[in-house]
Amino acid sequence: MAEAKNLECKNCGAMLNFDPSKVSMNCVFCGSTFFVEIPETEEDKQMRQNAEIITFKVTKDEAKIKFSDWIKKGLFKPSNLATTFREKEFEGAYIPFHKVRADATTQWRGRDKIVIREATDNTPAEYEYHDRSGTHSESYKDFITATKGLQQSEVDSVMPFDDNDTKPYDQQLLMGFKFEKPAIKSDNAENSAKDRIKNWERDACSKGVDEILNTDTMISNIESKLIMLPIWILVYLYEGKPFRVFINGQNGKISGQKPVSKIKVIIALLITAAVCAAIYFAAKGR
Asked: Of these four, 53, 64, 113, 115, which has the most CB atoms within 10 Å of its CB?
């Protein structure tokens, strides 16, 4: 078997592995056929040696059924979407992620808001504030995308993946699917994970107090490892415009983009405005 080459899509920036025995290929993310070859570095080889793979459990036929059910749903989708869309790409791909583990400890300060007198028709409510503070600690695991072809929010939408069922990196396991080399370094992924962890810590601290005023989070024991995650990626066209859909190749969770019917949105806004007006005039009449 010929050694795969690394190619960068000139349209969306995704870095794909390409079997040179094939005549041509399309970018799984945008459908482009324009590539430039990228040489592999020693760092790339070392990262791959320590990497893990979660293999596909959802077949292509099962993924198609998931999509068929999904495309029919949606309050604001065009009525003819399920019958007029045109499939452009439907590929299984192993997408590189950095699996980041870290411990976090947060010192937080906040306050509770206590009502000491309820509002009346003539006077506003009065409140008393009690200062509070504390410490919150937790261990985290996050998957940060290592591809330029997908946004973090897109892959977050089909999480989670169960990484208790992984295999050591073996290119034979990737055969039959598109697969991409990492385009984002582990240091950048760890920095992104730190920002996300700090937000999660703030959310956790805020659950125990009425108002969070300040959080100071220390992150320690951070480490990362390359992991290849299985995702079915479908690109379809509606009225000439492309939309992307993602299906978790391990558990079948689906997420993606749908066009919006402007007529349905306008009708919904008119109905909402009519209901609000009716409530207003009913309350004014009383």
From this structure: 53
